[in-house]
Description:
The complex is a heterodimer.
Chain A: H1 9-24, H2 28-42, H3 59-62, E1 65-67, H4 74-80, H5 84-87
Chain B: E1 7-11, H1 22-33, E2 38-42, H2 43-51, H3 53-61, H4 67-76, H5 92-98, H6 105-127, E3 135-139, H7 145-158, E4 163-167, H8 173-182, E5 188-190, H9 197-207, E6 217-221, E7 224-225, H10 246-255, E8 268-270, E9 273-274, H11 277-281, E10 297-298, H12 301-315, E11 319-322, H13 335-342, E12 347-351, H14 358-366, E13 369-373, H15 381-386, H16 393-405, E14 409-410, E15 415-416, H17 423-432, E16 446-447, E17 450-451, H18 455-458, E18 465-470, H19 472-475, H20 484-487, E19 490-495, H21 505-519, E20 525-531, E21 534-540, E22 547-552, H22 553-561, E23 567-568, H23 569-575, H24 582-594, E24 598-601, E25 604-607, E26 610-611
Parallel strand pairs in B: 1-2, 1-3, 3-4, 4-5, 8-11, 11-12, 12-13, 13-14, 15-16, 20-26
Antiparallel strand pairs in B: 5-6, 6-7, 9-10, 17-19, 18-19, 20-21, 21-22, 23-25, 24-25
Helix pairs in contact in B: 2-3, 2-6, 4-6, 4-7, 12-13, 14-16, 23-24
The site of iron/sulfur cluster (SF4) has 10 residues of chain B, from helix 11.
GO molecular function (chain B): catalytic activity; cobalamin binding; iron-sulfur cluster binding; metal ion binding
Domain Radical SAM core (chain B): 260-480
Domain B12-binding (chain B): 67-212
Amino acid sequence: MADELPVTEDELRNLATKLDEFARTLSETERGVLLTIMHRFGRPAAEPAPAVRAGLLSEGFRDAYERGRGTAFRTVAESAKGGSIQDALDGPSVENSVQHSGPDTEPPR
Amino acid sequence: MASPPRVALVSMPFHSQFRPSIQLGLLKAIAGAHGFPAETFHLNLEFADLIGAGAYEAIGDVGRSFLGDWLFAAAAFPGPAPGPGAPVPADEPFLRAALPDVAHPLEFLRSVREEQVPRFLDRLMAEIPWGGFDVVGFTSTFQQNLASFALAARIKAAHPAVVTLFGGANFEGEMGVELTGAIGCVDYAVIGEGDEAFPEFLRALATGADPAAVPGVVCRRDGGVTAVGHRPPFTRLDELPMPDYTEYFDRAERLGLLTRAPRRDVAIPFESSRGCWWGAKHHCTFCGLNGTGMAFRSKSPGRVRQELAQAARRYRSFRFEAVDNILDMAYLRTLLAELVAAGTDYEIFYELKSNLTRDQLRLLRQAGVSRVQPGIESLSTPVLRLMRKGVTGIQNVNTLRWARYYGIKVHWNLLFGFPGERAADYERQEALLPLLAHLSPPGAPTRIWMERFSPIFADPAAFPARYRRPHRGYGQIYPESVDLERIAYFFEYEFDGSVPEETMDGTRRVVRAWRDAWRAPERPTLTFRHAEGFLQIEDARTPAEAGTFTFDGPLAAIYLSCADRPVTAAAMHGRLDPGPSRDEVTGALAEFCDRGLMMRDGDQFLALALPATAGR
Ligand code: SF4
């Protein structure tokens, strides 16, 4: 029985990764079928779907949002602003939208 | 011809002035390696200098408007071409958008066509001793046909003994056969790849053999066009010589288009592969690239490294642009890993397939890949399926995320117009777009073009169109004697079962706003910071209305578990141990989606925020 097997966190993670990869090879319908089977396997088929959305977890969303973002003493506020990845980026593409965007990179003939 | 033929290789407008022509550079090197010294002429630079670099590049960029070809049409076909009063093949609003720096685009284009083009061609005839060459070769891609014909006609008129040879993407397949038959100044053409056909053609000329007997070469003869079979795509890419770009840099510096400096900030084209490994299996329905050369072939990693190192030293530039259609995935283990180990400072552009992992994007950036075209043509999985892209919408978003994080600039598009698509697909996509404001924006939504060689062109049974005809621009540049059906690359068409233009109005508005937001001094961001059991997501996708979400315990774990890549609820639940019930996980995922912090595609979920700490 599965619940008698000693299962480590690593083993679970590996299995989850493999399941993800496997799921990617399936069509949307196949995924739906698989999920239904897993669902049925996990509990009696007649059991109704849960009415609550996140159950206890939904509490965690209630006051999750606040206006504003990180702050600092005024003297250092400037250096605290913005994400560092922003500085690593180039501007958006201003080229005309073309089917094969990017440079004119036809192979040589 | 007793001695080796003297060869000139020409690149005419409107090849971009900003990079040398790999076609010219490679063919010169190939000819030299076979004992036929060749001289290259990047004459496109001369024209850019004449009409202004900005206007030149803008005309070259709007390839499907045929503006560049139209400018040279009267010079190429003085009698039969649409004459001096011929209408410009674009309306005024388009021209104003295409040439924003030109005050009166219509007047400007007319004066270029009627005054500057003839002056340019006269000058080329006066300054270059064409009669000293036995062969003048023209490479032609996109809008290079008419300028090439205009010069070739003058060379033939002044020096009838000079043999003209044409090649390039514009001469692929049936197009090259028809152009050779219909255009008087085209003596010979190479159809397909020229690596072997070109030196064999020169050898035939040198030995007095019939050049038309070389496989892949065609010419006009006895009222028809000869053709000695099709030559299979060239496979031994490592045997090719390094392209020679010396003349391009000399000319650009002589003209003052490029200032002399110890380091040149110019993208050097290089080729590490040909064909498309994806297209060979599942040809994307709209793609007309690789007409006859889809089979994938790539250079060895050692050879590519050697080429980059040699080109950097020779041309004093560290910027490179791969002309490949798609990155060889084996390079992730070989070439790119080796470049990381070597610590090179290259900046490389690559086209690639978009289902890349975070690790792969990190590796690309570390190897110097700073710009990519990953073929993200849509964020809608049903639409991507219709175009046979082999990727899902959520995978495309993830590629955009990690490209943003690692500082890789992404060129991408939103295409529509696929038979079988539904307005609802685009409505769902439109609703997703504002959530991605922190990621690099796409170009304006574009209805797919019908290109020769693409499945939507080549397989009318699978893609029935109400009508299909050569793009009207061809009629404005070619005389009636040319069979447009056979020379056209772009076609006008109408599919049943594709959405009308208005369906995309909302998307257009969202994309415009997105691009505007990225031009603002402060770009939109969505980042997360994580402590053990605690997560803050800072949402500044609208910087003026920034806010912060704070999550503890399982919610933090749920969010982080799909931060690297898309994950199903079932897989996520398996990872959270000990953790909430599966229903709670599913509910929490829905709440994250409702707040725009996550996206869902089918049964997969993806966190949209990026780590605030850079470079991990
Ligand atoms: S669009 Fe790109 S991936 Fe698709 S067949 Fe063409 S080259 Fe290959």
